[in-house]
């Protein structure tokens, strides 16, 4: 006879749902504040004590933005090829396979189509966990198709960037994804369909120098690192220390390249207000 | 290793130096793999000098050596490794954008400034004619000596450079002149001011706006084509690479430092990146390669300029037949087809 009797029949929570991001029960922010992960989740992954925006991925952003977390994922099974047979410390194909196994993601971006407070929207969101959110053919192609979808159905496009830049293992191909996504955005631009680019921590390199900076509305999360060249490269090039706050979202706003900075807790409502203003 | 012409001949005494200088007239910087060629060339020159001075007939020997030289040159330059091509693309004597422009045009008026911040000396442009037809040239410019290199910022443009380029391209569109861009940069400049003035935004805007240009756009990589800094003026109906150039998302050195965590794997990185003209063409990322004279563009700049000019004329003849809307559509389609995915 069991000591405890289970009243509810069979616990059916799938593994995916069980796993919280960030892992573990408690989360410690860089400033040292400790918060329970459940509370963090209910607070759009922002620490209530110091407003620290935890780095999150597409799963969490979709959960925050889509009504009732309902959305249709486009190009769900697209994965990277290895056009150059690239090998560094390990073959690119192995790296991809390992990363897919580790992250349960197919590549560094996912596209969802759904509703935001009742308004239709296409969202492509990058995942930094997948090889530093690097942009290869899959990221470029997924964004292109998301824009195609927005064009065809005349609905706004939101791009959430979080990336170290281009994916070196796809060399020339990854460079041309900057061109490809910009080409599609030129069509969206001409068609007069709103494009909102949300830059999160970090957004650098080829991503900044293409779709991230091409929004009708360029917006960012507080404190996000946003720049073309990485801070280390700049420091090495000029041989000087960088000023405090250099390349932060606030710095980029101050220099005129952002429309506004938005706290993640207000993100959904602010996006709704903006889209609604454009609509009426 | 780079060996400087007159100082590097290894001969003692001023007299000898002067003789060498007079004899060879133009002496190029010699790359490591070019050394056997340079040595042989030097030997031939010495024999000619000897034959003249002592009045003896060495023509047979000279002829056989010259034949040997041709064979050696062909062997060397037809079997270049990727890294060797990278070295050639950075060769100190290699012609730069303005060299080609002045060589190709009868009239050329250089235009300056982005109308916002300043004139970026790393990005040049202006109106010139190719066989009587006016073209807007835009290109990155490197410097020849220390002072020029600093002035040109080693061919690394700031945001104002990209905005200057876009201003000139829009002007070309207004006056219905085709655009030719000459790409030669180790990258867009990574500096504090560059970030403050929106390096990323400047490049991104160029990418998007170049897809909308109603006039023909021809892009030619004439030296180094490093990443976004190169792409920022390289969206065109036709994209060509000179034979000994490279075009990729990162330089072999930086790739080595990031992926191998050391600067010593640049040769491997160059191989892995597949960054040469033949690689890029095979992968459908450029339209064609423009062959260089044997030994590289710097060995015969006039010849190289003629080849570039012919390619531009041929491309324009083809592009002129299309309506602007069709050209734009094809330009977009071309770049949208780039990328390999599994699904």
From TrEMBL, chain A:
Subunit structure: Acetyl-CoA carboxylase is a heterohexamer composed of biotin carboxyl carrier protein (AccB), biotin carboxylase (AccC) and two subunits each of ACCase subunit alpha (AccA) and ACCase subunit beta (AccD).
GO annotation, cellular component aspect: acetyl-CoA carboxylase complex
Domain of life, per lineage: Bacteria
Name listed for the protein in its UniProt record: Acetyl-coenzyme A carboxylase carboxyl transferase subunit beta
Keywords: ATP-binding, Cytoplasm, Fatty acid biosynthesis, Fatty acid metabolism, Lipid biosynthesis, Lipid metabolism, Nucleotide-binding, Transferase
UniProt main location, coarse: cytoplasm
KW Nucleotide-binding (keyword) present: yes
Any one of the GO BP annotations: malonyl-CoA biosynthetic process
Pathway participation: Lipid metabolism; malonyl-CoA biosynthesis; malonyl-CoA from acetyl-CoA: step 1/1
Presence of keyword Cytoplasm: yes
Pfam families: Carboxyl_trans (PF01039)
Assigned EC number: 2.1.3.15
UniProt domain CoA carboxyltransferase N-terminal: residue ranges: 24-280
One of the record's GO molecular function terms: carboxyl- or carbamoyltransferase activity
Signal peptide: none
Lineage, broadest ranks: Bacteria, Pseudomonadati, Bacteroidota, Cytophagia, Cytophagales
Family: Belongs to the AccD/PCCB family.
Subcellular location: Cytoplasm
Catalytic activity: N(6)-carboxybiotinyl-L-lysyl-[protein] + acetyl-CoA = N(6)-biotinyl-L-lysyl-[protein] + malonyl-CoA
Name of the gene encoding the protein in the UniProt record: accD
Automatic annotation (TrEMBL), chain B:
Entry-linked Pfam families: ACCA
Compartments, as annotated in UniProt: Cytoplasm
GO biological process, one term: malonyl-CoA biosynthetic process
A GO MF term: carboxyl- or carbamoyltransferase activity
Domain of life: Bacteria
Subunit structure as annotated in this protein's UniProt entry: Acetyl-CoA carboxylase is a heterohexamer composed of biotin carboxyl carrier protein (AccB), biotin carboxylase (AccC) and two subunits each of ACCase subunit alpha (AccA) and ACCase subunit beta (AccD).
Stated name of the protein: Acetyl-coenzyme A carboxylase carboxyl transferase subunit alpha
